[in-house]
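Input record (one chain):
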Amino acid sequence: MINWQIKSKKRKLKRQALKALRQGDVKNGLKHA
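The corresponding structure, as predicted from the sequence alone:
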């Protein structure tokens, strides 16, 4: 793999993880509310 491909892949994974975390926070917030 080329260097920039690895970087873009990591960035994509990080974005997906952040999105999942945010969705989890929303769900937890609804539970606690």
